[in-house]
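Hi R.,

Here's the chain you asked about this morning:
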Amino acid sequence: MKYKIIHDPIHGSIRIEGMILELLHSPELQRLRDIKQLGLTNLVFPGANHTRFEHSLGVYYLTNKICEELSLEKDILNAAAVLHDSGHLPFSHTLEYLSKIYLKKDHTDLACENVLRVADILERYDVNPEEIIRIIKHREKGYRSQIISGDLDVDRIDYLLRDSHYTGVAHGIIDVERILKTIEIRDGILGISRKGVLAVEGMLIARDLMYSSVYFHKTARICESMLGRAVERIIEKEGMEEIKEMTDCELLCKMKSYGGFPEEIYRRLKYRRLFKVVRYMKMDLDFEKRKELEKEICEKAGIPENYCIVDVPGLEALKRIEIKVFDEGIKNFEDYMILKKSKQLQYPTIISAPEKYVERVRKVVDRL
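And here is the predicted structure, written out as tokens:
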């Protein structure tokens, strides 16, 4: 059988053959080579240039290992693993809020559209595309969806390892082998044996530290909010259908040729002339109210529209952890945790503007 060996800096040599090899050669997955995993975070951590394609390979590798450990049927889960992130927009999560607003779809919905586009490949290997869609969208309960996307999933394991490696931030280091060796399935539920509790708790702590130090880094947030505002201007005139199919470079070229504010943001990002922090605040605004506030601040500060950005982050809630521990019955993971979590991780709203407007905007914000 024809196969290829791909050398991955995180997992080593990965053997690819059959259906997975054909899927990786499809336009839907080749596009991911040109979509950065961490959006514009490379403007803060210069090494963070890894892509969604690499991540998809890593998720496939880990899924395959879990299937071997637990003697599970591989084809459906492996296909779901490589396809689960294929719907990402340019710069990954940076523009997902616009997809939800204008298309009423998130990246998993768009991934499911890609599943249907590669249905001919899947069906040649007797894999039902609708079954993969149910796994990706969590339309079925049980271990298959949990393996691909859950509190104890291969997606999180790979992105923590990969993002930590490429950013140079050590917080994402986790004991993968221990987790994979202690994962179990009971009564159709994915869980961990008591022996793996500490390794899983380490993974959850690593996730929280990576959110604080990398994913919600203030400068990365400013970069991505600048990009978002430029794309909003384009969408208001042209809609979003074209953008959702683009790669990172294609979107930047679109901004460059568009003129006006999008072109200026393109040049600011290219030469790293970023907006500066005006104030950190606590506020909760929806999309329309945020736009109104930005417009109001610009008018009162006497600066051009769009040159004040109010970035309201989502709250990374430390919700009840849905991991089960198999220890003389099925118990809740939180009962075994050494470091108890008592509050949410909350990130402030960042108000930013070009350096020459910072003082004018600050005076208006302080009055408001």
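One quick note: The chain has two domains: 3-214, 218-314+348-367.

Cheers,
M.
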